[in-house]
Amino acid sequence: MDSSRRKRLLSVFPARFAVPLKLPIAFAMRRTLAQGYDRAALRADLLAGIVVGIVAIPLSMALAIAVGVPPQHGLYTAIVGGVAVALTGGSKFQITGPTAAFVVILAPIVSREGLAGLLTSGLLAGVLLLAMGAARLGRLIHFIPHPVTTGFTAGIATVIATLQIKDIFALPIPHMPETYLEKVQALWVARHGASLVDFGPALATFLLLLVLPRQLPRLTAKVPSPLIAIIAVSIATTAIHAVFPSVTVSTIGSRFQSVVDGRLVAGIPQIPPLPTLPWGSGELTLGSINRLGSAAFAIAVLGAIESLLSATIADGMTGRKHDPDAELIGLGIGNILVPFFGGIAATGALARTATNVRAGARSPVAAVVHSLVVLLAILLLAPLIAYVPMASLAGLLLLVAWNMSEIRHFLTIVRIAPKSDVVVLLVCYVLTVLFDMVIAVSFGVVLAALLFMRRTAELTHSRILEGTRGEYQLAPGVAVYEIAGPLFFGAAQNAMGAIDTVGSDIRVVVLALGRVPSIDATGFVALESAIMRLRTSRKLIVIAGPLPEPHAVFDRANLPKHHDHVHFAESLDAGLVLSRELVERSEVPLA
C-alpha cells in the first residue's frame, strides 16, 4: 500500500484516544456515604465482617503456606489488602486477600527469587493494576471468552490439588520444583516417606467440611464450617499426642518459627503487620524490575481477571453494579501497600465475597471489619494457631480446589458446546497445568478470537444476480452484486473476490450493501480494489442502500471524487432504476 493511500485510509478511519481526566477512586465507599449509612447498616456489616474474618483466617494461612511462605504473610495480606481495596475500590461487597488462583503463579516466584522477590513482584503488579484502572481497561474483562476462564480455572485447581499431596502425607520434599511434571515426579519419588498419621487430620478435615454444612446447616450458618473443622481436628490431634506421645503430626508451630525480641516463637508471631521494605536490605534496581517484570505482569493479569469476575458475581447476587475501573485502581493501591507490610499479592476472593454477601453485608465497611478480625486473631490467638496441623490446612485447600474446578460445569461444556469452544477450553486447561496461566489466557484468547473471526466470516455471504435470475428483473447489461454480513478483515477478500466473475457483457454493477452493518479498513480497501478492477473492465458502479456506518465511511472517503464511475443510491430499488438509466445513456468509463 503506497503512502498516499495509507494517509487516505487514516483520514477515513481516524484514530481516537480518550484520556481520562478524573480517576474513579473509592467509588464504592463514596456511593455508600452518598446513599446514607445508619446503625442498621453498621450492625449488618459488623456481623458479616466477623463471619468472613473467621473464614479468612485459616484460608489466608493455608494459601500462604501453599505459596511457600510462612502463614503470617497470608494474614498480613488479608489485613492490609482487605482494608485498602475496600476503601479505594469499586465494589461494595468485595473481600480482598490471598487466593488459591495465585498459588500457581506465586509458588515458582518464591522458589526462584525468595520472599523479597515475591513481595517486590506484588508491588510491581500493583503499579500495573493502577495503570490498567487509570487507562479504564476494567471492562475488557468481558472480552475474555467463558471457555478460557473455565479452562484456566480448572487448570489452577488441578495444580493446587496436586500441591496438597505433600502436606497431606507429610512427604519429605525439601524443595518443590517449578514445573508441574517435575512436581509430580518429586511427589512420586518421595512416596515412600508418606505418613498415614498426617493423612488422618487431612481426611478428617475434608470430611467435616463436606458433612457439616449438610448435617448441621443451622450451626454452620452461625459458625463457618472451616473454623469448626480445623478447631476440632486441632484439638483431636493435640489430645491424641498427649495420650500417645509417639503419635505426632506436623503443625504450624513445628513447621514455622520466627524470632521476636531475640526469642524463638513457634508458629506465627504475635505482632501486627509492621512497615518493611519489600526488597529487603538490598536496593530496588532496574535489573531486578526487569527480572521480575514477567512475574508482575502475570500477577496483575490474574488479579484483574479474578477480582473483576468476583465483583461481577457479587453484582448478580445483590442486584448492584460495581465500577470495574475503580476496582482495578483500588486493587492496584492495595497491592502497592501490601508488600510494605509483608503481605503477598492480593485479589478479590470469590468464596469470601459470596460469604460476605450471604452474611448480609451492606457496604465496604464489612471488608474492613473482616480485616480487623484477622488482626485480632494474630494479636490474641497466635499461640493457639501453632497447634493447627499442616495436613488439616491441606485438606481445606483440597476442598477449595475441588469447588474451584467446577468439574460438572467443565464436563457440561465439553459435552454440549461447539467443538471450537471445547478446543479452547482444553487448550487453556492443559497450558495452565503444564506452563502457566498467562500463557494459557494469552493463547486461549487469541485462539478464541481467531475461531470467532472464522465463524463471523462464514456469516458474510455474497452472490451475483444477472438477467432474469433471482428475484430482480434486471435490465440488459446490469448485474447485482449483493453482500450480506459485516465487511471486515476476516471476510473482506472472500466477500469481494467473486465480483471478478461478472460477465464481460455487463456494463453496470449494482453493489447491494443494504445488509452490510459495518465495514473496517480492510473491507474498505477490498471494496475499493474491486471498484478499481471494475473500472479497468469498463464497468460503472452503483452503490445501493448502504447502512449508516458504511455510508459514513464512504462519505469520509469521498468515493465519487476519487472514482468518477461510482454512483450512489439510497436503496436497492433506486439503484436498479439508476442502473437502467446509466445503461440507456451508454455512460461507459474510460479504461
Biggest sheet descriptor:
5 strands, mixed
Largest beta sheet: what is the strand line-up?
5-6-7-8-9
Oligomer: single chain
Shape: elongated
Helix content: 55-70%
- Rounded to the nearest angstrom, the radius of gyration is 31 Å
The percent range for strand residues is 5-15%
Q: Measure the end-to-end span.
A: 22 Å
**Number of E-type strands:** 9
- Low-pLDDT runs: 16-21
> What structural class should be given to the helix and strand makeup?
alpha/beta
Break the fold down into its secondary structure elements and pairings:
Blueprint: H1 3-12, H2 27-35, H3 39-67, H4 72-88, E1 96-97, H5 103-134, H6 146-168, H7 180-189, H8 196-215, H9 217-222, H10 225-243, H11 252-255, E2 257-260, E3 263-266, H12 286-318, H13 324-337, E4 347-348, H14 350-358, H15 365-385, H16 390-405, H17 407-416, H18 419-434, H19 437-459, E5 461-466, E6 478-484, H20 492-497, E7 508-515, H21 521-536, E8 540-544, H22 548-557, H23 559-562, E9 566-569, H24 572-585
Helix pairs in contact: 1-22, 3-4, 3-5, 3-14, 3-15, 3-16, 4-13, 4-15, 5-12, 5-13, 6-7, 6-16, 6-17, 6-18, 6-19, 8-10, 8-16, 12-13, 12-14, 17-18, 18-19
Describe this structure in words.
By secondary structure, the chain is of the alpha/beta class. The chain folds into two domains: 32-450, no CATH class; 460-585, STAS domain (Transcription Regulator spoIIAA), CATH 3.30.750. The protein contains 24 helices and nine strands. It has helices spanning 3-12, 27-35, 39-67, 72-88, 103-134, 146-168, 180-189, 196-215, 217-222, 225-243, 252-255, 286-318, 324-337, 350-358, 365-385, 390-405, 407-416, 419-434, 437-459, 492-497, 521-536, 548-557, 559-562, 572-585; strands at 96-97, 257-260, 263-266, 347-348, 461-466, 478-484, 508-515, 540-544, 566-569. The chain has a five-stranded mixed β-sheet with strand order 5-6-7-8-9, with helices on both faces. Strands 1-4 form a two-stranded antiparallel ribbon. It has a two-stranded antiparallel ribbon with strand order 2-3.
